[in-house]
Structures are given as C-alpha cells and as structure tokens.
Predict the 3D structure of the following.
Amino acid sequence: IVSDVALSPNGKQLAVAVFGSDNGEYISKVYVLNFDSATPTFTAEYKGEFIYSLQTNANKGFFVIYGGGADFVHWRKYKTIKFTTENEVRFYRGNSKCSLIVNTRSADKKDNTLVLVNKRGKQINEIKWNQSITDVALVGNHIVLLCDTNLYVLDKNGKTVRSGEAGFGGVRVLGIGLE
C-alpha cells in the first residue's frame, strides 16, 4: 500500500513510501524511481516502523518521517543521514531554509528534543525543551511553540526571543511575519 510520495525539485525523480506487514509486524519501504524507468534506483527498508510522511521542502533531498526518527535522503547518490531517537517523532515542520523535528518521550510529554536541520540535511542545533508542546511552527530560522496557554518564539540556538500568553483553547499555531 502506498502511504506517501515525494517529487524531486527538478521533477525527474519520485520517492514512494509503501507499507505492509509480515507476521503481524509493519514493514515500510522507500523506493526512489527515475521517471524514465520502473526500476528503483534506491531502496530503504524500515522494519517494525510505519512511515508517516515523505517531506521535500529541502532542495537537496527529502525527509522520511517515521516513529523512531527521521532520515534525510539526498536525491543524488542517496546518502542518508539518520536522526533517530529513543522517543517518538511528534512534530515535523519544514520551510525553504530548514526543517524541525520534535521528539517527545511517550511517558513524559514535557521531555522534548527539538532538532533543527538545514536544507542539506546537516544538523544546525539540538534543543531540549521541558514543557508540554501543543503545536509548533517554523518561520525562517525561528521556532514558534504553543505550550498549553503560552507562546514562545525561539531563535535557532534555542534562546527565547519572545514569549507571551496565548489564552485558553489554542490548539494550532501559525507563524507569520517573523522573516
């Protein structure tokens, strides 16, 4: 079953995520195909994992988002950079400048790690955040966090540059005007 697809920026390659099961265990795979051939030029297997999405906001490659982490796969030569974690990937956000992966420990929603990655798949920073995160947005190199009734804007180093009360009932944050 196809779960997601991603198109390369030049339109010449297609990444396809598929999943199935073997003896009750998830098996997900990612195939990369050139449009002039039905034979995959790259294959990666994720046993015991479900691939949530393929993200192509980075022009040099794409992200494979799964429960145990996120992999950045370069479109050329398929070099893979793994951002694995003991915790679950809770949020992924990306833009033309960078990507943000938020990992949260299942047993403690206040135990979060924010991983900021540039558009070439290189880690910019890893930030520990000890508050429960309701939602997150990425605007330029700024991280916007909605934490219960508070809103925080962090720079790429994890320093809080703005904060304030968000009121009750907020479930989604959309960051605009920070670039």
